[in-house]
Design goal:
Helix content is 38%, strand content 22%. By secondary structure, the chain is of the alpha/beta class. A seven-stranded parallel beta sheet has the order 3-2-4-1-5-6-7, sandwiched between helices. Helix 7 links the parallel strand 6 and strand 7. Helix 6 packs parallel to helix 7. The longest helix is centred in the N-terminal third of the chain and has 14 residues.
């Protein structure tokens, strides 16, 4: 591999992982980097329907988007593949695809399905993909109540497997954050042991590419190519 690979996982499904992935692609593209996004397994989407990568392609035009398999049922990839009577995506296949993309791109973002330990096949998870690639794993978390436990568990699972976690990004920061969300800005890094590296505004995925590029830059910390700083609340 020549390019960098960053794996993006969530603490659960629906936490804003795809929009954060698009934000990472946006700031890298603004630096002139060649960016590819790999979604090994897309579930809950039928043939010809737009999946997560359609959102990335719309928000960051020019991004090379690759999907290895899709299954119609909105379930974990292993379960959805079994119900569809289709072969699952193995961690080895996902890692090989990411490595091939890294030979032609400066940055490859590998977006998982749901959380870190959701099964791709009978035994393999996104953590196994990251292990094969020796790639860091960025965690996307929810803003509000319950996120401290889920985030700490995810980071602990990464560290237990010898994987590197550069930090956490809040995937959908509310326009009017409640007390729990405001407190979590300080508590997330304190409890997880890794840095808070950004917060993407809820609804950012509905913006046009130009507006999204601006939001992305201001939603990610300098370590991820942006200018975001933890707000004083």
């Amino acid at each position: 591999m020549s390019g960098r690979v960053l794996v993006v996982t969530g603490t659960a499904t629906g936490v804003g992982k795809t929009v954060v992935t698009a934000a990472l692609a946006s700031v890298a593209a603004a630096r002139g980097e060649r960016v590819a996004v790999l979604k090994p397994a897309q579930t809950g989407v039928g043939p010809g329907e737009p999946g997560d990568l359609a959102d990335v392609a719309r928000l960051v035009p020019g991004t090379a988007c690759h999907e290895l398999a899709r299954y119609p049922d909105p379930l974990a990839p292993a379960t959805a593949a079994r119900r569809a009577g289709a072969p699952p995506v193995t961690p080895a296949a996902a890692a090989d695809a990411a490595a091939a993309l890294a030979r032609e791109h400066d940055l490859v973002l590998v977006e998982g399905a749901g959380g870190l330990l959701v099964r791709f096949d009978a035994h393999g998870t996104l953590a196994d993909v990251a292990g094969l690639l020796r790639a860091p794993v960025l965690v996307v978390a929810a803003a509000g109540l319950g996120t401290l436990n889920a985030t700490e568990l995810t980071v602990a699972a990464l560290h237990a497997r010898g994987l590197t976690c550069p930090g956490v990004v809040i995937g959908a920061w509310p326009a009017e954050p409640d007390l729990a969300a405001r407190c979590n800005l300080a508590d997330l890094p304190a409890t997880s042991g890794v840095a808070l590296l950004g917060a993407v505004a809820d609804g950012a995925g509905a913006l046009a590419p130009e507006g999204f590029a601006t939001v992305a830059r201001h939603s990610l910390a300098p370590e991820l190519g942006g200018v975001w700083q933890t707000p004083a609340l």
